[in-house]
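Sorry to interrupt, but I need a hand with the structure work. Can you supply me with one protein entry, sequence and fold together? No commentary is needed, just the two lines. Leave the record below and I will have a look.
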Amino acid sequence: MNITGKLCQIIIRYPLWYIFSYFGNLSVYGIKHLEGLRGPLIIVANHKDYIDSFLIGAVLKRGSPLIPLRYMVADGFFRNPFSRIPLIFLGTYPAHAKQGMDKSLEMPLDILNKGGIVAIFPEGKRIQEDGVSHARPGAAVLALETNAPVVPVAIRGGGKIRVRDFFMRKHSIAIAFGRPFRLRNKVSAHSTIFDAAEVLVKEIRNVYARIPECAAERE
């Protein structure tokens, strides 16, 4: 277990919860689907903005066994000393882009094999437009190789957030958790890894579609 990451995520969870709840008009759905879950576990979510990683962790219940969540972060943040140090303390790890999938998945596979929790964005980049885009294969490889349960998460209203508008409470953010599943049970022997990746985003889309429209709009 990453003790430092767990401690840091516990400490920042409380202020982040209040910030998102008040300024982001946050709505949370389906948190009950996390009850009783332990690692190894994969959380897959659509990616709207840089706040997504903090948002998922902030809505977990106090004392959740899912803390710490381990995230893959773009390499550029680790090359910057001002962001690298806090990211290391939070338990994140670099993506190792352009070094091959085996290298990129080495760390998350190790985390899962040791019973940890990995949160990953299958789209592979921020998609600020409404909806959920197509997936890259990395998350599907993790899910199939480890057979860890997968929890689909949908975030709506988190894209194109301007700092000033956020603190003026002009944004409304909604996050929803779906039922856990095992990817091996949803693909056939003839499915390609890209087919499996699309199953993941289909599950996210299903959760996304069930978020009430009003939750992502300021009345």
User: Anything to note?
Assistant: Residues 3-23 form the longest helix (21 residues).
